[in-house]
Write a structure and sequence with these properties.
Layout (H helix, E strand, L loop, with lengths): L10 E7 L6 H9 L6 E8 L5 H11 L3 E6 L4 H9 L6 E4 L10 H12 L3 E10 L2 E3 L2 H6 L4 E4 L16 E4 H6 L12 H11 L2 E12 L14 H21 L2 H12 L3 H5 L7 H15 L11 H11 L3 H14 L5 E4 L2 E4 L11 H4 L7
Parallel strand pairs: 1-2, 1-4, 2-3, 5-9
Antiparallel strand pairs: 4-8, 5-6, 5-8, 7-9, 10-11
Helix pairs in contact: 7-8, 8-9, 8-11, 12-13
């Protein structure tokens, strides 16, 4: 009796496309040159105003693994959801059209899932910056230990791995969990990845499975933090993710999420405080008070100078918050540390230390 060779699992890849003609060929080449050859690439041309749609059509004409869906412009979340309506694979993953995947990425994720039986797997990333590829230290820490078929209570800090595109999901899990991407809002990755981590068993892998391009032309979403709409979208998606964790109702997971994950990127907004418009400051403070008002960012995992700034935001001390951020930026090095009767703390001479909650100045082991 002859036994047929087991069919390799089909990986469906959703690639949303908008105004990326300079980067799209490298993106699609990286998908089609994967060691795992059994892929279907669903490109969603989200009303792109440049030649991106035509480039995608040309790829589809010469490689049957590529299909293109043309739509009006509705945004990234809607484009990903549209692509999901066209996938047929055993697994589904996402690829942004200005990024690339290393050649072993999907074979690494598939191999782990086939062995563990988990609902999805997540690997580390590197950022593609002008001077080369760099793995963010916090991603290296989250992925330092290989973990197979774990749940969120085993590794709650993994909720900080908010990216859509370094993960591979069983399509059956994605559909049974009712997952989709929020539409009409930026930073749509966090609410959905949070729900996935809460709902499933997952593999955490140390291998780098994604190369994330940091654009230098000002068009990247992450370069627009000073806009009011950007901040409003950030608060909305944080609110959605926090609500999901609160519904999960595990005190340890909630504490880690609020203090270590939800607060983790606030320092990028605090740097925008000097010279910010009144409306932007009001929205920043409203979000901080809403999400940390009963606990305070003083107890968060932010570095001390940003815990201090967070406390000043809570207290509506705008001038002091701006002075601290300007002082820290001007140093070009970490803020000085001193020790007094209350123990070790940071030294910020632009404000009166007696006018500040001493906990906001304190150093802690978990500040990294």
């Amino acid at each position: 009796m002859r036994f047929g060779r087991r069919r390799a699992p089909l990986v469906s890849v959703v690639v949303p496309v908008y105004a990326v003609e300079a980067w799209l060929p490298a993106c699609l080449d990286s998908a089609l040159e994967q060691r795992h050859r059994d892929v279907e690439v669903v490109v969603v041309d989200d009303g792109s105003p440049d030649g991106s749609g035509a480039i995608a059509d040309a790829y589809a004409a010469r490689d049957p693994r590529v299909r293109v869906v043309h739509t009006d412009n509705h945004g990234l979340g809607a484009a990903r959801n549209e692509g999901l309506r066209h996938v047929t694979g055993d697994y589904v993953t996402f690829l942004d059209s200005d990024d690339v995947v290393p050649r072993d990425a999907w074979s690494t994720l598939v191999r782990s899932l086939e062995g563990s039986g988990s609902d999805f797997a997540t690997g580390s990333i590197v950022r593609w910056e002008p001077d080369g590829l760099h793995e963010p230290p916090w991603m290296r820490r989250l992925h330092a230990t290989r973990r197979l078929a774990v749940g969120i209570t085993d590794h709650p800090e993994i909720l900080g791995d908010v990216f859509a595109w370094n993960k591979m999901f069983r399509r059956s899990f994605w559909e049974s969990a009712g997952l989709s991407w929020p539409e009409g809002v930026r930073y749509e990755d966090q609410p959905t990845t949070t729900r996935a981590f809460l709902a499933g068993r997952f593999d955490v892998l140390p291998e780098v499975v994604y190369h994330w391009r940091i654009r230098q032309d000002g068009t990247s979403i992450t370069q627009q933090r000073s806009s009011l709409q950007d901040l409003a979208d950030r608060w909305e998606t944080k609110r959605m993710a926090l609500h999901a964790v609160e519904e999960y109702a595990d005190p340890q997971v909630l504490e880690v999420f609020r203090d270590r994950v939800l607060a983790g990127d606030l320092h990028r907004y605090f740097t925008e405080i000097p010279g910010c418009p009144d409306e932007w400051w009001s929205l920043l403070r409203a979000g901080v008070v809403e999400m940390w008002g009963d606990r305070s960012l003083v107890h968060s995992g932010l570095p001390p100078v940003h815990r201090l700034t967070g406390w000043l935001v809570e207290q509506d001390r705008r001038a002091d918050a701006a002075a601290v951020m300007e002082y820290a930026a001007g140093l070009g090095r970490p803020v000085d540390r001193v020790t007094d009767d209350d123990g070790p703390r940071i030294y910020v001479p632009v404000i009166d230390p007696d006018s500040v909650d001493r906990e906001a100045l304190a150093l802690r082991e978990h500040e990294a």
